[in-house]
Design goal:
218 residues, 41% helix
């Protein structure tokens, strides 16, 4: 038994399953007939993973991501954790730095001034994924949907996250039971600010093209 499991089951301002009937209904719907935490996790993870990936704000509620039906790494991870906690499965946020596949995004954004602004984000970026307690902590990343992954592969990209190691050669993970404060602070230091939603919309159209490429392989 996880000694402090209670803190990984709590709701928060952004992980708002305690105030969202839609989240409770979706969690119950996805896990109907499941007899173990492992089976429940697999059903919930598969649902969240297949929601399309797209750039957005960092500090969205889980209920907002569910309603929109798509999200960024932080939004999809927050939704995953909310649904898992809904059915009594402890889960926590894991945050670390990754190196972006800049060449792939430049290839997608060729010819579009707005899309090329993704280079402003830099070569290293924050990434949010999840660890779930299934008798031990198991890491999982719901960020990319399958069609996007296949598109990346067809354009010669790699699916592995290029995790940034520190001076001692180790990746620095920040693990949180509640990520509200981190998300709000991260939102406050967004790099793209001017007309960001227009920029994100244009970039997300590039991601949809990537998914269309990937669907030819699925």
């Amino acid at each position: 038994m996880l000694p402090d499991r209670w803190k990984y089951l709590q709701a928060s301002g952004l992980c708002d399953f305690d105030r969202s009937l839609a989240l409770k209904k979706k969690a119950a719907e996805l896990t109907a007939g499941c007899r173990s935490h492992e089976d429940k996790f697999k059903k919930i993870f598969a649902f969240v993973k297949e929601l399309p990936y797209g750039l957005e704000d960092w500090d969205l509620k889980a209920s907002q991501t569910l309603k929109k039906g798509w999200g960024m790494c932080s939004g999809k991870t927050n939704l995953l954790i909310a649904l898992l906690r809904c059915v009594g499965i402890p889960a926590r946020y894991r945050i670390y730095r990754i190196k972006a596949d800049v060449s792939l995004w430049q290839q997608l954004g060729k010819g579009s001034g707005k899309t090329e602004r993704i280079s402003e984000l830099g070569e290293t970026r924050d990434h949010v994924d999840c660890e779930v307690w299934l008798g031990r902590w198991v890491d999982c990343d719901p960020g990319r949907d399958t069609a996007m992954e296949q598109g990346i592969l067809m354009l010669g990209g790699s699916l592995g996250r290029h995790k940034m190691a520190g001076k001692k050669g180790k990746v620095a993970y920040l693990r949180l039971a509640v990520f509200d404060d981190w998300a709000k602070e991260r939102q406050a230091r967004r790099i793209i600010r001017a007309n960001r939603m227009d920029v994100f919309e244009e970039i997300n159209r590039g991601f949809e093209i990537l998914r269309e490429i990937g669907r030819t392989r699925c």
